[in-house]
Structure to design on (858 residues):
């Protein structure tokens, strides 16, 4: 393969002609494909249908400790659900509050609460002139949307293969007291699939924030979402690490079963220090009488315990693995050596991150759409939707069927090629 | 019956002696009774066990319009759940957003959102020197807890048999721009069981608030919670009324199935004008990807439609009616004519409100506790937990069994009598 940049203008134009014909053919098929969101596929959702049978009119909906799960009460989760989520989150049960159907909502509430009430006695953020959050990029658009919604200034922190650039993180956190938080997806990061290295986690835990109310927003969304049994990324547990380094209150850890059982009908949890949880419970007791305990019970009865949950995740992996491999294979076969894009091959999570030539991402997404393939909007992986290099594209291979995915991947690489050629021609002048 | 105040000191002392013996006997029984919270009883919860059977692993969890309820998506509720909640709330489906398991959470979020973002372009309340809410009293402690949590000043508005004192409401709302809201439980009010009269609702709809971002927080928690089929209170629909009077945006209406199916595992909804809903959806889209659609589907499949839901409510009424009647009967038989307390006999809802002699409520609740009966804390029905007259006690007859309830009611009246005698003796000097 010759890198596109080494081709002559004539060669590029020739190539373009051929690819354009190919593209027009694909376009003519009237495809309707979607690689935009990290949605589980029908086959994955089917894995959890048994959850609809574990409770029925003959089942007493009574928790281990006698709690009638149908009634009011129990603010922070039934005992057995706390245990399950604690095991999943690798923390002790005292460090967990089980919440409603979405960890996103817990994160939103955490920021909202800090805005109106501060954290552990600090000034409410809404009363400060300036509040900033660090945002490892590329990252998760819904995280950035929360901080944007509350008028919090977001600062891009480049990702490295070991996680966020920790020199930069330390520089900001330890010296700027307006920096109040950082968004992290520490395992199989969204969208790159990078798992923070041991050193990275230790440096996180070793931060000495200028702001006493600085919090690490540790969204471990893909903690058990490995693709390969024999080759799993390993993430150091942050709560224990923070405690070890004398900063037990510095982190909020989030997780949910959204991509384990039913997206949108799962259970979620926050893990944090006792002090943090006490404050959260206090505010939660104003907000709700309690979350859906019947759904908590349903999850526990379905999985029984963490081993059951992990066994279940292997079935997910069996569905996801070939999809990831298809996309990676197409990328490698079609783009390998062309030097018009790069990607990381993840060992878990929900995404593949693609970096196009600078200034090409938007055009590629638009081109793909022309042929009926919806991708995540270019820029979405950056705060304010602004990718300074217009280069990153998030690929979400989970939702389409394997057949659709093969077609989608081909439409994608075709779009990458065409837009890249145009870019190179433009640069050649 | 002679009113206690007409008895001589000696007669009161005599009476006290006898009642004290009675009380000691009851105390000796080591009772453990609870009339403190508006929790459905086991028998009521059993009514909804069929809900656990309507979805199973063989049921496609697909909505009317093809939505896979198991997956992400659909911010404001599946079509059929919106229809059900709209019918229950007596509004059109366009005016409804279906949310999670608790309307309390929607109310909290509404206040929280106004604090950080204002309402329809107004200044965020957190940025104002003073924000006030009107609180019809006695009222619902969890409402007051929300406004207290956000540092909003609460102003007591006396209830009348027709609803809140509307002269006072108009005076405040129409002339004080720091008054941003009022908490209402318009049908079978908590705790008095009063339904706002037609004139009251019309005067609400006719308010001309000094603050453009004033909102009526209309918590129609007991909209279909009638005790008697033939004798139901009728409440004018507030959204339509507000629209008619040219103030469509002035009201947020809340409801849930918490006391229809499973408390804590129901579905909730907010109804409001298009403009309001647009703003709420925008903020909700940051907060969550969507609420639990499987539970929405479960509710619709169980009830089918509003008629099914209403038929279900008759079964609740059959359980609740004798309980209310037991309490009222004991109150009438034991306290009638004694002039040491008054109460309203409600036709629905969850509570009976008891007004003791001034300065006696706290002592009565404490006395009852001595004999093993837990009542709602005296003062709880007022903002800041402060009943200026120390007179109001909320009786929640729903949770105990009928047998327990008879005993509980007797312990209660015994406590009322003893504390009242002490009060009268004290006043006699």
């Amino acid at each position: 393969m010759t890198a596109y940049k080494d081709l002559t203008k004539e060669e590029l134009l020739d190539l373009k002609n051929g690819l354009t014909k190919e593209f027009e053919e694909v376009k003519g098929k009237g495809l309707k494909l979607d690689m935009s969101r990290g949605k589980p596929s029908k086959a994955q959702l089917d894995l959890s249908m048994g959850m609809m049978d574990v409770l029925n009119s003959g089942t007493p909906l009574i928790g281990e400790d006698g709690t009638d799960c149908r009634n009011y009460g129990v603010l922070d989760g039934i005992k057995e659900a706390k245990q399950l989520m604690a095991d999943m989150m690798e923390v002790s049960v005292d460090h967990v509050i089980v919440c409603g159907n979405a960890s996103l909502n817990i994160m939103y509430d955490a920021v909202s609460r800090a805005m109106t009430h501060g954290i552990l006695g600090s000034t409410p953020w809404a009363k400060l002139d300036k509040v900033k959050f660090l945002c490892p990029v590329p990252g998760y658009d819904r995280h950035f949307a929360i901080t944007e919604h509350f008028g919090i200034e977001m600062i891009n922190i480049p990702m490295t293969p070991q996680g966020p650039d920790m020199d930069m993180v330390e520089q900001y956190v330890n010296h700027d007291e307006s920096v109040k938080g950082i968004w992290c997806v520490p395992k199989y990061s969204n969208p790159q699939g990078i798992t923070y290295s041991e050193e990275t986690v230790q440096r996180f835990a070793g931060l000495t924030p200028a702001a006493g109310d600085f919090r690490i927003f540790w969204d471990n969304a893909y903690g058990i979402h490995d693709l390969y049994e024999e080759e799993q990324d390993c993430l150091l547990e942050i709560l224990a690490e923070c405690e070890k380094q004398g900063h037990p209150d510095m982190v909020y850890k989030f997780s949910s079963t959204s991509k384990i059982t039913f997206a949108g009908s799962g259970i979620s949890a926050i893990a944090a220090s006792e002090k943090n949880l006490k404050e959260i419970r206090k505010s939660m007791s104003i907000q709700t009488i309690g979350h859906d305990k019947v759904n908590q019970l349903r999850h526990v009865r379905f999985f029984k315990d963490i081993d059951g949950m992990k066994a279940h995740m292997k079935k997910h992996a069996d569905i996801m693995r070939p999809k990831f491999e298809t996309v990676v294979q197409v990328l490698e076969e079609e783009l390998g050596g062309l030097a018009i894009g790069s990607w990381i091959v993840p060992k878990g999570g929900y995404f593949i991150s693609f970096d196009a030539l600078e200034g090409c991402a938007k055009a590629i997404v638009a081109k793909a759409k022309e042929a009926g393939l919806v991708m995540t909007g270019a820029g979405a992986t950056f705060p304010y939707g602004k990718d300074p290099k217009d280069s990153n594209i998030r690929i979400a291979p989970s939702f389409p069927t394997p057949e659709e995915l093969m077609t989608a991947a081909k439409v994608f690489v075709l779009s990458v090629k065409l837009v890249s050629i145009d870019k190179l021609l433009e640069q050649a002048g």
